[in-house]
Structures are given as C-alpha cells and as structure tokens.
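# nightly structure sweep
# worker-07 picked up a monomer target from the shared queue
# config: single-sequence mode, recycle default, output format = structure tokens
# input follows
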Amino acid sequence: MSISGVNELSANRIFTIAELYDEINKVLGSSIVLSGVRVKGEVSSYKYYQSSGHIYMTLVQKANKKDNYGKDVFYRIDAKWWKGKNQYSKDKDKIKVGDVITVIGSINCYNVQSNVSIIIDSVHLTDEEGRSKAEREKLRLELEKKGYFDDAHKKPFPPKYPRAIGIITSQSGDARHDIEKTVQKKNPYVQLYLLHALVQGAGAGKSIANAIRFFDKKEDVDIIIIGRGGGDKLDLAAFDDAEVVEAIYNCNTYIIAGTGHTPDRTLADFAVDKLANNPTDAAYEAVFDVVSELEKIDNQIKELNYNIYRTYDLYDRMLEEYLLKIESRSPAKQLGDRFAELDKYFQGMSYNMLRVLGTYENGLASYMSGLQVNNPRVKVEKIESELAHISDNISRNMRDTFVNRWNAFAKECEMLEAQNPAKKLIGGFGYIEKDGSPVASIKDMKVDDDVKVKLSDGFFMAQVTKIEED
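# output follows
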C-alpha cells in the first residue's frame, strides 16, 4: 500500500494531526518491509525500567560524512522492547552500550513526540564492535599516551575560598540551575559567571573548549565547572572531543566535571581535576560551606556565653560558701564565745573569789597583751584581702578569655566580608547586562545595543556606539 491510500479517502480532506498520524501508522503497518523490518546498529543508550519491565534503547550508525566543524555525524533511531516481548529473552541482560545488535520489529510513528521508532519483537547479538566505541577507545589511548590523564598533572585540591566560579553549560539546561542553587545554598558570597556553551550536537566540543580557555584567562575565576544533564552516549560525544581534553589539560584553573551521565566515563572525565556524579555534586565540591560554618560559629558563641555565665555562678557560689565557712571558724567569733563563757563564770563567782581577783587581773592583762600581738581581726582582714585578689584574678581571666574569642570571631567576619562580591562594585567597577544577561565579551555586543550598567548605588542605561577589540 502506498500514500495514495490516503488520497482514496478524500482528495480534499483536511486531517487533524492525530488523524494524520493514524493514517501514517496504517501505511507503516501494512508495509511488508516496515512491519517486519530488520535493523542493525550500535547501542548508544540502553535503559531497563524495573517498574514496568520495558526496555528503551537508541541505535546509531556513523555516517560517511562530517559536519561543518569536521566532526563525525551519526544516524540514530529509538527502539522500544516491551515487557511482553523481552521477558523470556536471555540476551537482554547481556546487552551494553557500544554493542552492535540486530533487532527485528515494526516501524511506529508516535504522534505525541513526533518520533519514529522501532517496536522490537526480538534482539540478536553480533560479534561486531561498534565503530564509535572502537574509535573512542583509540582516541583514549592516544590521549593517555600524551599524558593528558596523568594524576601527577592534576591539581590535588580546589581553592578553599574561591572568589568566583566559572560555569560552562547550556544556559537553558537544568544543570545551570542545579549548580547555582547549590552554590548559593552553601556560600552566597561567591561570584558566579555563566558562559553558555553547546553541550551536544555540531560544534559542541569547540564551544566547550573555547569556554574553558576563556575562564582560564579570568584572574578572579578560581574554579571552573563543566557539566550537563544526563543523556545517551551519543549526547555526551562533545565531552569525548580531543580539543576539550586538550583544553582541560592546558588549563591552569581547577576544573570539576559533573555531566550526570551513566557510569561510563567520558574522556573529559579522565582529564579533569575532580569528577562529580552530576552538576549538583560538582557545585557541592566547589565551595566551602560558609553558611554552616557561620551557624557553627554562632553556636560556639552561644556556648561560650553559657559557659562564662555558668563559671561565674559557680565561682560566686563557691566564694559565698568559703565566706560562710571562714565566718563559722573565725577566731573573733570563737574569742567572743569564750568571753561570754568567762563573763558568765565571773558572774557566778562567790565573794570568796574576790580575794584572788588581783592575781587573775595580772594574768588577764598578760593574756590580753598576747592577744593584741596575735589579733584575730588582723588575720581576718588579711584573709579577706587574699580572697579579693583571687576574685580579681578570676574576673580578669574570664574577661581575657571572652575578648580573645571575640577578636577571633571578628577576624573571621572580616575575612568573609572581604570576599563579599558587592564590594567589587565600589570604586568605579560596574556590572553590565544585555537583555537581562551578563556581558562576558565584546563579541556578545554590537553597535546600537542597549545595555544596563549597575553600580554600587544604582544603575543607568547606555547605548553602544563603538566596539574595539584589545
């Protein structure tokens, strides 16, 4: 049956889109070739969904031509292997990315995504190795031989307090937003620069390499993040580009990669200083958690204040207890008690004791002379003086400890304030936007463009009248 079958319905009929897809699938289903087609290709992606039991894959074939950038071109087609067809196949667990397989099935045109795919009946493994896999492995060995993947060449640690981070990804992709949100959550004081780059398709490798070289020349950029969301192996081909690997190798700035792909690593992953699982993890690795550190310092200050007041109360209670003990054991008190006893004794003396009063008066005078030499009041005053000295030492030590801790905290705050990106706008520096996006290069501008220039106390609009390159 041919397309003429559509005309047989009505030469002048106007189809809805859904009706048109129905007619296309009728034609495909009635074709002897397309309803039982056999297709051989290299597996670019292979996903088995445990919940449904369905398998989705992409088959690719390298074309005998290059794109405008001299890069390889691939033909691709999606394939779907439903659970009812694959559940008894022993080969489904053996298939991996890079294998060349032959599938038997029918061609289907899915109207929701305007997607042509193969609905698989059966799959047969071959002994062939995929051309893209073989060429990638050949390139990997060449780059490895040049030392591009050597750990000795990689920078071991990123800067702990980066001034600015350069982000290389698609400006419309989720990777950009994931990186920005993660960095802002951990350290809102770091400056972020986004340089849009193609992450798949023609010219993507050169776009990424140029972005790396651009950020490597910016003096305030301390870390570069390259990344994108997930995709099949062909979607990640830009990160297997030799120019990208060479740009990473020659870059003096610390580079983190987070492409969010399958466990198979790209060639760029072997060359970067740090490999993260996805863009979010890459951003997490790039910045020090200033927010958590400030919360920790605040908690330490609260704990210090609590310990100071608790120590003060402890020593205050101890001092009060010592004073009570000293008072209860005071020689003056004991002497007073003894005088009371003597007074009671003298009151009970009989008239007969008056005759010996003179003798006792002389002894008492001698006794009082000895007490004057060892006056208890003098000893009490000396003890009170020592206690006052101890109290002064305690207060001074507590004050010195608090001042030292407070000065250390103030120094940390000054360091954080020094990294505040808002300060960069003071002293004549400005931040230029065009159509709501930052201007990173004069190549993004043309004469008569309207731009917005932000300063520390406001902004003004300007128009480009002349452009000159350095």
